[in-house]
Write a structure and sequence with these properties.
The chain is of the alpha+beta class. The chain has seven domains: 22-149 and 593-677, Rossmann fold, CATH 3.40.50; 150-167 and 217-264 and 505-590, no CATH class; 176-215, no CATH class; 296-498, Valyl/Leucyl/Isoleucyl-tRNA synthetase, editing domain (Isoleucyl-tRNA Synthetase, domain 2, Alpha-Beta Complex); 681-719, no CATH class; 737-884, Isoleucyl-tRNA Synthetase, Domain 1 (Orthogonal Bundle), CATH 1.10.730; 888-949, Ubiquitin-like (UB roll) (Roll), CATH 3.10.20.590.
């Protein structure tokens, strides 16, 4: 019969029937609150039943509600977490799984600029579109817990957390954050010394405030930022391309200093590194975090330069004798001081950049550098720089060495200055080679080391001696200790630890973001608002874009959109000393803010009194030493998302969470106990002769070539996306096959962690599997049940219980593709054995339906119901294997003769090695090979093989 024709059986499982089933069960789950996870306390507590102690908190990374909708690659991780959550509900755990939206950000704001539509209108419409798509896929989300960062009641608590961080400092004696009020008490009591040594009472109120502000975890600082005049806003490093342009719009970006909010994440650098050992995360992600923080042990070394001292940090102080020149970042504060008035006589013209004076050379070079991103400056390319016209003194050799500026040195790492040791650093070697600078070996390289490049390996020190100290012959570690001791004894430096990690720039000159809960007094002092004045609601404005400038106007200054809302900016408040006029902050928080803590609001989304109730947080995220060991930091049980968030989002979230932990607001020391990175769905894309992408679904193949509208096109392979015209919508798959088929196909494509190619033509295989299973339970013609209570054979029982045991393990370990494969294998066996029989044994049918439920919940619910069970299977039972059927009675042994398999024997599973050997030698083919002789050796590998050596 042809599916879709008039002769199609009325009860055949096809897209139409699947759609009816799926809508019906989605409505049922929604009406009955099937996925509601009870809390210990508050309005989401269930007083009618005891709270299960066995819980699971599983979470997807916060999606942004894009207006373009989903393609089939987006739900991959979402389906994975849903399968995992469903399995754990079925084995009796209380599962919290929901989804919210990271809904602030630049795309909605830019759309508002183009169309005049308020970003909230666009964002809410996008969220509804997104929800319509994911609801079709049958996710088991507790929708009562859904939040969006743009909800006023959500960002009220984002502002509240900001205030907790603002009103805290890092107490190095306790190694944790403490309230700023404790610091003030220490100064008042004389337990801390003021910077200039005066008594606290001798300082004016403004001076006291300045001292306190120097310690805050949130502070205002003049910091170099990425300024994009064409956008009228500052952009984050990750929003700048390698060409020094904005990701959105391709506008030039300039580095310039601006007064900005900063978060002192550097105070937590050691804990952020060390506590990675407590987390069940992919090692790749841990390594990326360690590298981003960049903890390095070495020395600060001071090089005298006239009346100044240039301080550098180096991890290899043992190579100090080989420092033959110095390089400063173009932004280094000493550049102007050290720039000479005229070029020294005989200076190499290449060092001058062709300028008449050092000042002209420096100004021109700084201007060029300001147009480059940090990433562009660090990429391997021909080194550039200019000489400052002055020298510093190498403290180890006493020799004068020239001082340059070069863009490959950044102010963001170390001190913004390097001692250049070209013999042992590749970048320094390239620079020295180009500019004709001396190269002095201070580490003995092997005889076979190339002479035309830097030697970066280890070896004994050479050429490293003066009248006070000698490193010659010492290994690296001993040489480091010796030179650091000499530096400290002679006032030239000291051993120290440095980090690549910089404090977090926490402000954007945009409209669509969280307002700061801060006002400024007449002196420009930032005043935190009292908690009872939260939330500070984002006002409506007539224009959503900041003032933009000529894209090349590097001297322009930001004018954020909120600055135009004058009635909101100027406000009269009574903050305890009578009504006064204050000015609100016209910047907004970066998009990272809401995603730093959203897991905590999922726990308690309707709490008006606290951002999360302590009992609820402890239940869902608190440490569980009995399950995870004595060093368990707590956190949610499984966090799934793309590896592209491996550094910044996770680092920022961990920082916020640790501050809240230090202040006693949460019991978990880390937000995410276990992390899993899903792969990507990839797809073929096609370009025509102009290099323009054509719709992939309209491309045909013939004789190994590809054609679009009769023209041959070129095939390429990569990430699925709208721009490549190769995306497939999940709605299309649900319309064509049903959501359960789509879910099963995505999970069966390969391991969840791997990227894999999409092939629409292969989806039909998953659909046919579900049709075969349906036919085992339901008569396609009548819709009647075709199961019977009959005894299972021994072979049926063995295969069934081995499948149950294996599928349980696969679900628990996120091996959904192999779980699906084993269900197909079992289904094929049952179809072969009972497909033509009058009925399928109920024991097989029910077990298969229950095992299928996490992957394909709608069809499983429908079949379970038709099998006579009025209650949903969402909360189980999940089949449990009978151990007696997991043990094999017999074992098959392949028999090798001199390493080549010649035959096989089947023996009792408990046969000893002697019995196995005797059976192998008696086997007809092996006996013939022996021809009455005795083998040289017989090796029996228990349960595996027999090797006969002639």
């Amino acid at each position: 019969m042809t599916e879709g024709s008039d002769t199609t059986p009325a009860q055949r499982y096809n897209a139409a029937l699947a759609g009816q089933i799926e809508r019906r069960w989605q409505d049922y789950w929604s009406d009955h609150g099937t996925y509601h996870a009870p809390n210990p306390a508050g309005p989401l507590a269930d007083k009618s039943a005891p709270l299960p102690s066995d819980k699971l908190f599983v979470q997807d990374m916060f999606p942004y509600p894009s207006g373009s909708g989903l393609h089939v690659g987006h739900p991959l991780g979402f389906i994975g977490t849903d399968v995992f959550a469903r399995f754990n509900r079925m084995i009796g755990r209380n599962v919290l799984h929901t989804m919210g939206f990271d809904a602030f950000g630049l795309p909605a704001e830019q759309y508002a600029v183009q169309t005049g539509t308020h970003p909230r209108t666009t964002t809410e419409a996008n969220i509804e579109r997104y929800l319509d798509q994911i609801r079709r896929l049958g996710f088991g989300h507790d929708e009562r817990r859904r939040v969006a960062t743009t909800d006023i009641e959500f960002y009220r608590w984002t502002q509240w957390i900001f205030l907790q961080i603002f009103n805290s400092y890092y107490d190095e004696t306790q190694d944790k954050a403490r309230p700023i009020a404790e610091l003030e008490k220490q100064y008042v009591a004389g337990e801390r010394t003021t910077p200039d040594g005066r008594a606290w009472s001798d300082l004016s109120a403004a001076e006291q405030r300045t001292v306190i502000d120097e310690h805050r975890l949130v502070y205002i600082s003049e910091a170099p930022v990425n300024w994009a005049p064409g956008l009228g806003t500052v952009v984050a490093n990750e929003e700048v391309t390698a060409d020094g342009l904005t990701e959105r719009g391709n506008y030039p970006v300039f580095r310039k200093p601006l007064r900005q909010w900063m978060m002192r994440i550097t105070a937590y650098a050691d804990r952020l590194v060390d506590d990675l050992e407590l987390l069940d995360w992919p090692e790749k992600v841990k390594s990326m975090q360690r590298n981003w923080i960049g903890r390095s042990r070495g020395a600060n070394v001071r090089f005298a330069a006239g009346d100044e001292a240039i301080e550098v940090f180096t991890t290899r102080p043992d190579t100090l004798f080989g420092a033959t020149y110095m390089v400063l970042a173009p932004e280094h504060p000493l550049v102007e001081t050290l720039t000479g008035e005229a070029w020294p006589e005989g200076v190499d013209e290449q060092w001058t950049g062709g300028a008449a004076t050092p000042a002209e050379a420096v100004a021109a070079y700084r201007d060029r550098t300001a147009r480059k991103s940090d990433l562009d400056r660090q990429e391997t390319k021909e080194k550039t720089g200019v000489f400052l016209g002055s020298h510093a003194t190498n403290p180890a050799t006493g020799e004068p060495i020239p001082v340059f500026i070069a863009d490959y040195v950044l102010m963001g790492y170390g001190t913004g200055a390097v001692m250049a040791v070209p013999a042992h650093d590749e970048r320094d070697f390239e620079f020295a080679t180009k500019f004709g600078l001396p190269i002095v070996q201070t580490i003995q390289a092997p005889d076979n080391a190339p002479a035309d490049q830097a030697y970066v390996g280890d070896g004994p020190a050479i050429n490293s001696t003066n009248e006070d100290v000698s490193l010659n012959g010492l290994g690296v570690d001993d040489a480091k200790k010796t030179i650091i001791g000499w530096l400290e004894d002679n006032g030239h430096g000291e051993g120290t630890v440095q980090y690549k990690l910089r404090d977090w720039l926490f402000a954007r000159q945009r409209y669509w973001g969280e307002p700061f809960p801060i006002v400024y007094d007449e002196n420009g002092t930032p005043i935190p608002l009292p908690e009872d004045q939260l939330p500070v609601v984002l006002p409506d404005v007539d224009e959503y874009s900041p003032k933009t400038f000529d894209p090349d106007d590097a001297d322009s200054e930001p004018e954020p959109p909120l600055a135009k809302a004058t009635d909101w900016v100027e406000v009269t408040l009574d903050l305890g000393d009578g009504p006064k006029t204050y000015r609100r902050d016209t910047n907004v928080m970066p998009q990272w803010a809401g995603s730093c803590w959203y897991q905590l609001r999922y726990i308690d989304p309707t709490n008006d009194e606290k951002f999360v109730d302590p009992d609820n947080e402890k239940y869902w995220m608190g440490p569980r030493a009995a399950e995870h060991g004595v060093n368990d930091p707590g956190g949610l049980d499984l966090y799934v998302g793309g590896v592209e968030h491996a550094v910044l989002h996770l680092l920022y979230s961990r920082f916020w969470h640790k501050v809240l932990y230090d202040l006693g607001f949460v019991t978990s020391a880390e937000p995410y106990r276990k992390l899993f990175n899903q792969g990507y769905i990839q797809a073929y894309a096609y370009t025509d002769s102009r290099g323009v992408y054509v719709p992939a679904e309209e491309v045909t193949e013939a004789d190994g070539k590809y054609f679009y509208n009769g023209e041959e096109v070129t095939q390429e392979y990569g990430k699925m996306g709208k721009s490549l015209k190769n995306s497939v919508a999940p709605d299309e798959m649900a319309d064509t096959f049903g959501a359960d088929t789509f879910r099963f196909y995505e999970m069966s494509m390969g391991p969840l962690a791997d990227s894999k190619p999409w092939a629409t033509k292969d989806v039909v295989g998953a659909h046919r599997f579900l049709q075969r299973l349906w036919r085992l339970v339901v008569d396609e013609e009548t819709g009647e049940l075709r199961v019977a209570d009959v005894e299972l054979s021994e072979s049926d029982l063995k295969l069934l219980h081995k499948t149950i045991a294996s599928v349980r393990d696969d679900y628990a370990e996120l091996r959904f593709n192999t779980a699906g494969a084993k269900l197909i294998e079992l289904n094929n066996h049952v179809t072969k054995t009972y497909g033509s029989a009058e009925a399928t044994p109920r024991a097989l049918a029910e077990a298969m339906v229950l095992m299928l439920a996490p992957l394909c919940p709608h069809i499983a619910e429908e079949l379970w119901n038709r099998l006579g069970h009025p209650d949903t299977l969402v909360h189980g039972p999940f089949p449990v294997p009978d151990e007696k059927y997991l043990v094999d009675d017999t074992v098959e042994y392949p028999i090798q003769v001199n390493g080549k398999v010649r035959s096989r024997i089947t023996v009792a599973a408990d046969a000893n090695a002697g019995d196995v050997e005797a059976a192998a030698l008696a086997e007809e083919k092996i006996a013939a090979a022996l021809d009455g002789g005795t083998p040289k050796k017989v090796i029996v590998v228990p349960g595996k093989l027999v090797n006969v050596v002639l």
